[in-house]
Amino acid sequence: MADVASTKIEIWSGFAVWDFKPKKGRVVGRVDDVKGKRDGTEVGLPGAEGIDYLVLSADSPFRTYLLGVEWHLHASVRISPNVEWVDYHDPALGKDVVPRVTFYWTW
Asked: In whole angstroms, what is the distance from residue 57 CA to residue 47 CA?
């Protein structure tokens, strides 16, 4: 883990929400770009493979995209099908795609 201390992490993120039908439905999108730099060379994010809900490769910088639609079934119940994909800068790692359905309920 000595490399972690000498790795500079550069991250930018953008997020957008469009309420196409206020309090009934919306579209959400997010983009994150993550680069590690060690001794002037681009590397991945140290420890990225240890994230439980989205296992990433720590071997390459990457960009993640999230796109989803949220429906308000009731004032306190929402459901949101969404997809998250990871595009690695190293073509040998390919892409990771994770479809999800998020359920949100308040009481």
From this structure: 9
Q: Which two tokens stand for residue 37?
A: 């730099």
Q: Are 9 and 36 within 8 A, CB to CB?
A: yes
The count of structural domains within the chain is: 1
Helices (H), 1-107: 2-5
Q: State pLDDT tens for residues 43-91.
A: 888 888 888 888 888 889 999 999 999 999 998 999 999 999 999 999 9
Q: Are 26 and 17 in contact (CB under 8 A)?
A: yes
Predicted TM-score of the model (pTM): 0.83
Residue 92 domain boundaries: 2-105
